Amino acid sequence: MRRNIVAGNWKMNNDLSQTEALITELKKQNQTSNCEIMIAPTHTNLWHAFEALRLSDIEVIAQNMHYEDNGAFTGEISAPMLNSVGVTTVILGHSERRAYFKETDAVLAKKVDAALRHNMRVIFCFGEELDDRKAGRQESVVKDQISNGLFHLTEQAWNNIVLAYEPVWAIGTGETASPEQAQEMHQFIRQVLTEQYGNRVGDATSILYGGSVKPSNAAELFAKNDVDGGLIGGASLKAEDFFAIVNAF
Ligand code: PGA
Q: Is 94 marked active-site?
């Protein structure tokens, strides 16, 4: 069975003291839940977050990494560095990385390989822009992103891949895909996976939805058959809202 996951992407928010404060709040909220819970603080606070959440059910994950293990790549961070502070899951291909830092499918494929080489789990993000949806080409855009970034992988490698469908027009805009739009796309993605790798991968791969998920819409989205959780930006910055989303499962 595939896992349900709610992951908070803090993006470039929260310095050390804000991170401490939010983690204190998260620990107060955290009771038993029906999904895996993850938070992705900024790199400088990963070690602190990992230590502070060591005995909790909340996994600390990274927002990005480079594909090389080390070397002359000023400002970058690598999989072994993340592993050394206890991080074993990384978000790759977020639309902000693609848009502002020009990360291409080819670069992302290398990052995925590097993460898997170091036994990390990858949350691989993709999604169409508003123009794509208006032109009705959202499915082909998404299929290209998935196949260019991930279809070189073996079937076995998919044990460590989680997908996150994030329509760019819904990220940080307050505009959410309707549960029906999300379900339609998630079902399409699962079909694409099944065609390429067979039923086992199609059925077992978790597909998260991201883009303005909030306490008021999470339950409806998560109730859809092919929606296995969410990647949460803005609403993950308030412990109460984040846990209202977690408890939507
Ligand atoms: P949002 O961000 O929830 O603020 O729309 C989602 C994301 O970028 O992962």
A: yes
Please report the pLDDT score of residue 33 as a whole number. Answer: 83
CB of 16 closer than 8 Å to CB of 48: yes
DSSP 168-231: GGGTTSSPPPPHHHHHHHHHHHHHHHHHHH-HHHHHH--EEEESS--HHHHHHHHTSTT--EEE
Return the ligand 1 atom nearest residue 234 CA: 4
- Going from the Cα of 187 to the center of ligand 1, the distance in angstroms, rounded, reads 21
Q: How far is CA 131 from the centre of its chain?
A: 23
Cβ proximity of 63 and 91 under 8 Å: yes
Assess contact for 212 and 219: CB atoms under 8 A: no
Over residues 206-219, the mean pLDDT reads 96
Binning pLDDT at 50, 70 and 90, where does residue 177 land?
confident
CA 66 to chain centre: 17
One-letter identity of residue 190: R
The encoded tokens of residue 92 equal 């790759």
Does residue 166's CB lie within 6 angstroms of at least one atom of ligand 1?
Answer: yes
d(CA 153, CA 189): 16
Residue 39, helix vs strand vs coil: strand
Task: State both tokens at 25.
Answer: 């709040």
Kindly list the strands in the beta sheet with 58-60, ordered across the sheet, starting from the edge strand earlier in the chain: 58-60, 36-40, 5-9, 229-232, 207-210, 161-165, 121-126, 89-92
The pTM of this model reads 0.97
Test site for ligand 1: of 39, 64, 171, 217, most ligand atoms within 8 A of the Cβ: 171
